[in-house]
Amino acid sequence: LNVLIIVFTEMRDKLRKWREDNHRNSEQIVDVGEELINEHASKLGDDIWIIYEQVMIAALDCSRDDLAWTCLQELKRQFPGSQRVKRLAGMRLEALEKYEDASKQYDSILQDDPTNTAARKRKISILKAQGKSAEAIRELNEYLEQFVGDQEAWHELSELYINEHDYGKAAFCLEELMMTNPHNHLYCEQYAEVKYTQGGLENLELSRKYFAQALKLNNRNMRALFGLYMSASHIAASPKVNATVKKANVKYATWATNQINRAYQVSYARCLL
Amino acid sequence: MAEPELLLDSNIRLWVVLPIVFITFLVGVIRHYVSILLQSDKKLTLEQVSDSQVLIRSRILRENGKYIPKQSFLMRKFYFNNQEDGFLKNTKRKVVPPSPMTDPSMLTDMMKGNVTNVLPMILIGGWINWTFSGFVTTKVPFPLTLRFKPMLQQGIELLSLDASWVSSASWYFLNVFGLRSMYSLILGQDNGADQSRIMQEQMSGAAMAMPADTNKAFKAEWEALELTDHQWALENIEEELMSRELDLDGMFSQELPTGIF
């Protein structure tokens, strides 16, 4: 057993890093956070409140209701009328599957402040948790009509549409994301995959182009590389294309194959080391 | 011929020039914190939030529309600019000019603004004038006409003195404006000690002239969007991509994180 003496500042900095990068490593957060709260509460100063929030959400993820309840009580004591704390209380009710109560909680927040996006989004996630995807989609659409700029919501909507196999609308959502984040290769890749799934010559061409864009933005995106190969060979194999297009696509597919081989060689070399 | 240079007592530098700088600076910092304390919450309506996001989306469409397929771009442009039911063309918001009389929160805001900014300036300006009067403080490096004499040489009754020699009151005012950049350095942008910015705001009309702006903003966006064309960035993407080999450096090199630390 390696017994390490972990310095308190290290723990706190780790938590901050996870908080800023939006990591969802809830078990680690619960381990570190619980110790920090129990042993070093006095040294944390004002940081402790945001750590309570972070640990509470992680505790809900790990079904640690006892820890979540303690954090919530502390926060309620310090910030009695706060909407942010109310939202956390609602999240706890959601974790306990008391969806009616949670919904009422969020409604009360929205009565005070109709512009509170967090409460609205939680209500939609309740619908999603209950499996009511059609309603969730409808609510999310209404939400997005008011808050057109919420990227998290657009991404969530695209996921919901993909689950419902409504690829056209999913593509629309991903287009919004691509416009707001033109350098994010993952959105390009997801868009290309949706287009590929939709099928049809035009969509395959689009998907090939967007796989290429994803590769251009990030040369190491293997999924995009495979996607490029698949879409190019698919087009080349289609009977409806003319000779020039076929030739061009065969060229693309060959290039992709070469790159894939190179990548395998790199990984093989790595394994040998 | 250069007029005879006046030699100022170095005590003036020590006990007048520097203290005035410190006083101005400290008062500015205090003003900043007081303004933070007195700040009232600006409640935005749902409509305002929504409109501002729509405007952002339209701007993004103009700037980054080239990353989405032409069809999609045209679809969105149509949604915004269509003659019959385009959003930007047809949405009119109720325009309520926020005058101080009708909007009580505006009134209190204005009063707070005045109290924190103008009042200290007048008080301290007067006090400095009274304390440090009767002598010349410094010389501005550029020549001034005689018209500036009564303004800049308050308390010094010399008719033949060059207008470049100024009194402490004018040194104080010089500081108020000069230390603005110092405040940005120390207090960050948008700080409450920035007087000239506040005065500019007051001069350029109501501080939160949102309602009238929304209609104008919509119109401006409509025009800009009309002019935008779609130049697809992915036209020749394959050629660009395949002109060179992929850079696979650093692939597969990250170890999987295990344990807590």
Automatic annotation (TrEMBL), chain A:
What is the protein's membrane topology class? Peripheral membrane protein
Q: Which family does it belong to?
A: Belongs to the EMC2 family.
* Keyword terms, alphabetized: Endoplasmic reticulum, Membrane, Repeat, TPR repeat
Entry's localization field: Endoplasmic reticulum membrane
Under the cellular component aspect of Gene Ontology, which terms does the record hold?
EMC complex
Q: Which species is this UniProt entry from?
A: Oncorhynchus kisutch (Coho salmon)
How does this protein assemble? Component of the ER membrane protein complex (EMC).
Q: What does this protein do?
A: Part of the endoplasmic reticulum membrane protein complex (EMC) that enables the energy-independent insertion into endoplasmic reticulum membranes of newly synthesized membrane proteins.
Pfam families, A to Z: TPR_EMC2
Please state every residue range assigned to the domain named EMC2 TPR-like: 86-195
Q: What is this protein called?
A: ER membrane protein complex subunit 2
The record's section on InterPro entries has: EMC2-like, TPR-like_helical_dom_sf, TPR_EMC2, TPR_rpt
Q: Where are the TPR repeats?
A: 151-184
UniProtKB/TrEMBL annotation, chain B:
Q: Is 4Fe-4S set as a keyword in this record? A: no
- A Pfam family of this chain: EMC3_TMCO1
How does the record classify its membrane topology? Multi-pass membrane protein
For this protein, the parts annotated as crossing the membrane are 12-34, 115-136
Q: Which GO terms describe its biological process?
A: protein folding in endoplasmic reticulum
InterPro entries, A to Z: EMC3, EMC3/TMCO1
- Which keywords does this chain's UniProt record carry? Endoplasmic reticulum, Membrane, Transmembrane, Transmembrane helix
Record's superkingdom? Eukaryota
Q: What is its main location?
A: endoplasmic reticulum
Asked if Endoplasmic reticulum is a keyword of the record, the answer is yes
Q: Which GO terms describe its cellular component?
A: EMC complex
Which SMART domains does the record match to this protein? DUF106
Q: Where in the cell is it found?
A: Endoplasmic reticulum membrane
The record describes its quaternary structure and partners as: Component of the ER membrane protein complex (EMC).
Q: Which family does it belong to?
A: Belongs to the EMC3 family.
Name of the protein in question: ER membrane protein complex subunit 3
Whichever gene encodes this chain, its name is EMC3
